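I'd like us to work through together how a protein chain folds, taking it slowly. To get us started, please write out a protein record for me. Label the sequence line and the structure token line clearly, so we can match residues to local backbone shapes. Once you have written the record down, we can walk along the chain together.
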Amino acid sequence: MLKKINAVDVTLPGRRTDIGSIHPITQSIQEIGEYFSKLNFFLMEGPEIENDSNNFDFLNIPKDHPDRNKRSTFWLNQKYLLRTQVSCMQIRSMRCRRPPIRMISSGKVYRKDYDCNHTPMFHQTDGFIIEKTVSFIYLRDILIEFLKNFFKKDIHIKLRSSYFPFTEPSIEIDVLDTMGNWIEVIGCGMMHPKILNNINVNSKEYSGLAFGIGVDRITMVRHEIPDLRIFFENDLRFLKQFR
């Protein structure tokens, strides 16, 4: 009885293996970390589940502030929540280091927002400096230089006054996207003296500056993406474009 033999043509080209790539958000986080490490910032990571003291109280956020509301924040119980900002890492870092200090932290944060510029989970990079000679001018300059470095081209930048409980004075930095819209990408300011006092730093001897970068938004503007939510839909047709 004859046996059936499956022939293999060794001259045929091999099957192409799909090669993955770094997600554009992850790539942005890495680039931000590399940039600020050159300015002597150290990197620190922390938990996404935070207590209300670190997330609100020590950051000078009032008890009646709308961010504490259940309609804005994902509360796990009366004490713990999904952090709403990476700024809470300022408090954690100062418990293990003393000034002068430069720290940067990137990670996921959570808020109950959902539209083309907001998602319930998004990425934020928060940094701060506590030294004796820092100034608002220095804060402005390092952030504008960062944006120029990140976008690698001339961009239109707008600075406008704002309010944050943990900085005074405060500004927001907007960039102009290709569709003619101003997109807020950074909130920053000089650290409020109460924040320094809360972490046992003499506010008369030291001053601080702080900033928060919306990683998803600057990535959206750089790649000319109209809707932030596309990043998190796991659509391979979209993600393969970033190889």
Summary: The chain has one domain: 24-234. The first strand starts at residue 42 and ends at 43.
